[in-house]
């Protein structure tokens, strides 16, 4: 067959329209396509739902589709599988990982926990299923502050794996959480010098930053929050120009919803390096989405013992993130 492209040893027939095929397969498979704001705009545009990590977890838990095609990174697809084990969860590229997950090997994390038996472990969702299985409560950047504020003031807490998010949460909540030494390679690359230059050129433009950025960047921000919060702020702000210090693919949603505004991606060290695109998110493409819906592979599997253990702190997150009145936390 005249192949248009060969990926993972699989060929895509020449001349097919990938959008039409994906629409057909989505129906045929009873699939839902979930996408994170950091995905290529092409994938965002054909997703059934685009959201932040918390919204995507909620969607994955609630869907009645038979297949979840996850346009995001592996830990997000794993969360979908943990919460919806009866579904088939596929990820366009299984190599789409995360530097935060890589910074926190489960055995080292287990030892960290064992060394601090009087602490509970609050763990950022950007980690492996095995690390979640060692955790007490999972948080996302949009839910962390609300969840921490439901914990007793004298509760000792370990926070992993993102030290910048952890430090920001310590500042916001007045806690003294013990922090794991992990970082996001994308949010670490923004340059303070270049951001100051950009602010000087656009003095009225608010700076919106994700809390995975180092403190020196957050100190220059007018708003710090999760991707959903950043998007919301960008849309509601009366300012016509805004500076966005997070993965630049989120600007696609801003531009779609507020085409009259100007959104400027915050620069890296060379002033315009494009190095703050997430290389893991970028592994997912239209071609790979088509193939994973066609062949139902790569499929996400989580060993049942880990899945069951990892679901507990995820369920706590979902409950505490939605709580109107604080949910009392008891140990395991
Ligand atoms: P949120 O979308 O939850 O803000 O997370 C951002 C992120 O780092 C995804 O990898
Ligand atoms: Fe991980 Fe950073 Fe990419 Fe998010 S942006 S998936 S935290 S590497």
User: Which small-molecule ligands are present, each listed once?
Assistant: 1,3-dihydroxyacetonephosphate, iron/sulfur cluster
Counting DSSP H or I runs of 4 or more residues, the number of helices is 15
- Rg from C-alpha positions? 20 Å
CATH topology title of the largest domain: Rossmann fold
Helix content: 25-40%
Choose one word for the global shape: globular
Low-confidence stretches: none
Output the keywords.
332 residues, alpha/beta, Rossmann fold, 3 domains, 15 helices, 39% helix, binds 1,3-dihydroxyacetonephosphate
Question: What is the structure about, briefly put?
Answer:
Helix content is 39%, strand content 16%.
Task: Describe it.
The protein has 332 residues and is α/β, with parallel strands linked by helices. The protein has 3 domains: 3-95 and 281-296, 3-Layer(aba) Sandwich (Rossmann fold); 100-184 and 308-321, Rossmann fold, CATH 3.40.50; 187-265, 3-Layer(aba) Sandwich (Rossmann fold). Helices cover 39% and strands 16% of the residues. It has a 4-stranded parallel beta sheet, with helices on both faces. The protein has a 4-stranded parallel beta sheet with strand order 8-7-9-10. Strand 13, helix 13 and strand 14 form a beta-alpha-beta unit. Helix 3 runs parallel beside helix 4 (74-83). The longest helix is centred in the last third of the chain and has 19 residues, at 304-322. The N and C termini lie far apart (56 Å). The mean pLDDT is 95. Bound molecules: 1,3-dihydroxyacetonephosphate and iron/sulfur cluster. Iron/sulfur cluster is lined by residues 38, 73, 98-100, 126, 184-186, 212, 247, 278, 280-281.
